[in-house]
Amino acid sequence: ALTIGIVGLPNVGKSTLFNALTRNNVLAANYPFATIEPNVGMVSLPDPRLAKLAKVFGSARLLPATVSFVDIAGIVKGASEGEGLGNKFLANIREAEAIAQVIRVFDDPDVVHVDGKVDPRSDMETINTELILADLQTIEKAVPRVEKAVKLKQREAAELNAIKDAQKVLERGDTIFASIKSDKLEMEHLKELGLLTAKPFIYVFNVDDAVLGSPERQAELRELVAPADAIFLDAKLEADLVELDEDEAREMLEMNGQEESGLDQLARVGFHTLGLQTYLTAGPKETRAWTIHRGDTAPMAAGVIHSDFQRGFIKAEVVHFEDLIEAGSMHEAKARGKVRIEGKEYVMHDGDVVEFRFNV
Ligand code: GDP
Questions:
Q1: Is the shortest distance between the CB of 106 and ligand 1 below 6 Å?
Q2: Do the beta carbons of residue 68 and residue 2 sit within 8 Å?
Q3: Is 256 near ligand 1, meaning CB less than 6 Å away?
Q4: Can you give the residue ranges of the OBG-type G domain (predicted)?
Q5: Residue 203 CB burial class (10 angstroms; 0-12, 13-18, ≥19)
Q6: What is the tens place of the pLDDT at every residue in 146-203?
Q7: Is 231 domain-assigned?
Q8: Is the distance from the beta carbon of residue 13 to the nearest atom of ligand 1 less than 6 Å?
Q9: What count of other Cβ atoms lies within 10 Å of the Cβ of residue 102?
Q10: Which domain holds residue 320?
């Protein structure tokens, strides 16, 4: 499943953020068929294109793409040693496609910090150390097995080298994700190990007003976690925002000097980090954004709607969003030659408006 696991030390605001994610029940109303598990929170991907498209087609409702987050409780020092919560924690985190680390920056004498002081760098290092130790254990188990296979010529020496390169990165205390480029890691040889620190990371800094209003302080924190993406939000504010209607929420954001809610940012950055994009379908009933991976072909995109659409794929009628809006109607877009017929090999673009033709 395309979920992002939320991790963080105790008392950093994970539950507060997670409650905001699950109470964001506009979604539950829009997706009555989705089974929503108690530890999964969804946010919709903000997409101003949907309303414009819905106007052209007179659609009765809008269905944005969504991003799901899983609450992965239980990271503390020693989690990688598999004590108590440790094993369950590791299993949950393995299933997530990306990892969002909540890091406490807000200062509040009433909220105890597990290490006695607010120190984003140290928190991030504590979490990363646990993940790195878990990965080192995985690699130490794999190496003798792969060495043997290489000797028996069942596997390439390059695979073993890739694993040993990864081991070096971890031994010096870095995550795989942050070292892919700098250490030229051969990721295809590491895939089967399911390393935790090879997953894309997003850092969610839980901050107060002072940091929300300080680009300088945000730049420092960004620097700390680069090349991973960072977002800045106030978990308490987010929890309040989901209780308000749209206009009130916008007003409250403005009062806090923000253009976009933290949950919206989280959806956008998460979507990007997961390597996803959307294509659109539109008609009188609904205008909808569908989630696909960058590089997916037209039949794969059709399969997201229904597996029968992929199996019986014949062709796709495609017009880019911008062209359609400029033309003002499907009819006019066709007259202008902007509507293309694409086949099985077509690689989808973000913002393609599509109608599939298929055999059943
Ligand atoms: P968790 O242990 O990481 O799940 O943390 P919680 O979400 O339970 O938060 C711990 C405490 O910090 C609670 O009392 C929250 O109300 C408080 N808290 C969470 N986020 C913020 C924040 O942004 N600012 C302040 N001042 N307090 C917060």
A1: yes
A2: yes
A3: no
A4: 2-253
A5: buried
A6: 999 999 999 899 999 999 999 999 999 999 999 999 999 999 999 999 999 999 999 9
A7: no
A8: yes
A9: 24
A10: 295-358
